[in-house]
Amino acid sequence: MKTSTKLAMAFLAVATASGSAAFADERPRERGERENLRFERADADSSGDVTFEEFAAAMKSRIGAADTDGDGKMTVAEIASEIERMRAERRARRIVERFDTDGDGMLTAAEIESRQKKMFALMDRNDDGKIVPEEMRQGRNWRR
Fold it and tell me: Where are the alpha helices (H) located in the chain, listed in sequence order?
């Protein structure tokens, strides 16, 4: 096996291990619960065990789309791009979940404006319809 292939496989193993929490959903979970969820997702046929084929498919689903030019090789740039895409997708999913008041999985301008009004009201400490620098400093922890 070529050294570059070994390095790529080692990088994939590290990237997969470091991003394995994302294999589960975004809620913080106990370690055992995360491991069980990862196992269940890898066990595609629900047989109670994971074959190499199931394991390889699970790993490919995590980072397999990184070979964007289809040459059979994944460069550091391709892998980094895929990792960033996955992070952006998770962040977007959390934003939709947070702002989507009607639960349809999409955001409307009205839902965003409603959220903005709530945020503004929390920062406008004296309810005068304006935010002054002192309120900004006091309100910088408004999300907590």
Answer: 3-18, 31-42, 52-63, 76-99, 109-123, 133-138
